[in-house]
């Protein structure tokens, strides 16, 4: 018969936690209680996770103006971090009809830097042709790129789309998804990533150290602004008459406002004329995870993973992310 101590160990798991905002040095790996399964939940044994820019902001607590939305002004209300996961279903709630124990899944849920997570709507069967590490690179970045192109950019076949910041997590997905949707794609990146972006299917690649894309003799129907750094007056020079600008990110800027200052300037600048600019936060759900899965299984999208880390090395992964030059995604195996 199992002792009380044995039963307690079974109910515990390893997870990355922090008690305060700060650098990657505040991260710890602790034993914490496993999440409890709910009627509408799916208990997943996490095999891999990946880092997103939003994880960095949550770690350092920047920008300050966004701290209440993150969960705490002086310190975070939750000790857990992480959003992307891929793993194996261990149990399902009684109201979950389409998944069962043993299924390999991927999705999004706060607290994914852990051995277990209980997911709800944002969980689906992972692409059959991917390993867990590759599948874990998809959810937040892949769904953000999908919704930016399809829902906010409203890209139509034959239209020209420019991806400013084409070599990062969202950018590498955006280039491929825009091509899959029939777009003529121009990617903007650093010189070391030109070959990568071209290999993803970009029709043209602009090295921003050599050429300013806002000075090109082109007109784009959709501009996905992942990297930021350009003013509205500069961007509008290369926009078609009824172009759509989708703001996905921006430079960190001040600790008070962070990328929100850039987003606000672009939004205000776009109020005149026929072009429109908008910012959004992706909404993860099973339906869009299935769309990306089909693109992956159809050979139209492949996750770009720059480096893999062990869970014990997650602080190093965050330091790399914080440098701002990660190529594709950084993945952590659990």
Using brief descriptors, characterize the structure shown.
single chain; 334 residues; alpha/beta; Quinone Oxidoreductase, Chain A, domain 1; Rossmann fold; 2 domains; 7-stranded mixed sheet; globular
The CATH topology of the largest domain turns out to be Quinone Oxidoreductase, Chain A, domain 1
Main pleated sheet: 7 strands, mixed
Write the H/E string, N to C.
HEEEHHEEEEHHEHEHEEHEHEHEHE
Number of helices: 11
Roughly how many Å is the radius of gyration? Answer: 20 Å
Mind telling me the CATH class of the largest domain?
Alpha Beta
The number of strands is 15
Shape: globular
CATH second-level architecture of the largest domain: Alpha-Beta Complex
| Structural class by SSE content | alpha/beta
Are there runs of 5+ residues with pLDDT below 50, and where?
A: none
Summed over residues and divided by their number, the pLDDT gives a mean of: 91
Beta content: 25-35%
Distance between the termini: 30 Å
- The helicity comes to 25-40%
Q: CATH superfamily assignment of the largest domain? A: Medium-chain alcohol dehydrogenases, catalytic domain
Tally of separate domains = 2
Please describe what this structure looks like.
The chain has 334 residues and is an alpha/beta fold. The chain has two domains: 4-138 and 303-333, Alpha-Beta Complex (Quinone Oxidoreductase, Chain A, domain 1), CATH 3.90.180; 141-279, Rossmann fold (3-Layer(aba) Sandwich), CATH 3.40.50.720. The protein contains eleven helices and 15 strands. The strands form three sheets. Strands 3, 4, 5, 6, 7, 14 and 15 form a seven-stranded mixed sheet that branches. Strands 10-9-8-11-12-13 form a six-stranded parallel sheet, sandwiched between helices. A two-stranded antiparallel ribbon has the order 1-2. Helix 6 (169-180) links the parallel strand 8 and strand 9 (184-189). Helix 5 packs across helix 6 (169-180). The radius of gyration is 20 Å and the shape is globular.
């Amino acid at each position: 018969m199992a002792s009380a101590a044995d039963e307690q160990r079974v109910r515990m798991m390893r997870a990355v936690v922090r008690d305060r905002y700060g650098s990657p040095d505040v991260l710890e790996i602790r034993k914490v209680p496993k999440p409890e399964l709910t009627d509408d939940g799916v208990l997943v044994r996490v095999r891999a996770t990946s880092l997103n820019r939003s994880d960095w902001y949550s770690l350092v607590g920047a920008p300050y103006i966004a701290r209440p939305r993150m969960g705490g002004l002086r310190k975070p209300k939750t000790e857990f971090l992480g959003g992307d996961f891929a793993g194996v279903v261990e149990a399902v709630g009684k109201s979950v009809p389409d998944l069962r124990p043993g299924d390999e899944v991927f999705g999004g849920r706060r607290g994914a830097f852990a051995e277990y997570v209980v997911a709800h709507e944002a969980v689906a069967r992972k692409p059959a042709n991917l390993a867990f590490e590759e599948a874990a690179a998809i959810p937040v970045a892949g769904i953000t790129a999908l919704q930016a192109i399809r829902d906010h950019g409203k890209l139509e076949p034959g239209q020209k789309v420019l991806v400013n910041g084409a070599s990062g997590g969202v950018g590498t997905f955006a280039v491929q998804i825009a091509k899959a949707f029939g777009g003529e794609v121009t990617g903007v990146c650093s010189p070391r990533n030109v070959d990568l972006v071209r290999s993803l299917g970009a029709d043209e690649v602009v090295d921003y150290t050599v050429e300013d894309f806002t000075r090109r003799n082109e007109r784009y129907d959709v501009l996905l602004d992942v990297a930021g750094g350009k003013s509205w007056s500069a961007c509008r020079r290369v926009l078609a008459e009824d172009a759509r600008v989708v703001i996905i990110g921006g430079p960190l800027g001040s600790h008070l406002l962070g990328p929100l200052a850039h987003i606000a300037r672009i939004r205000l600048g776009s109020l005149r004329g026929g072009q429109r600019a908008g910012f959004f936060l992706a909404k993860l759900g099973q339906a869009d995870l299935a769309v990306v899965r089909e693109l992956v299984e159809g050979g139209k999208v492949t996750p770009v993973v720059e480096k893999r880390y062990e869970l014990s090395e997650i602080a190093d992964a965050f330091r790399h992310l914080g440098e701002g030059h990660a190529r594709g995604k950084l993945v952590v195996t659990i």
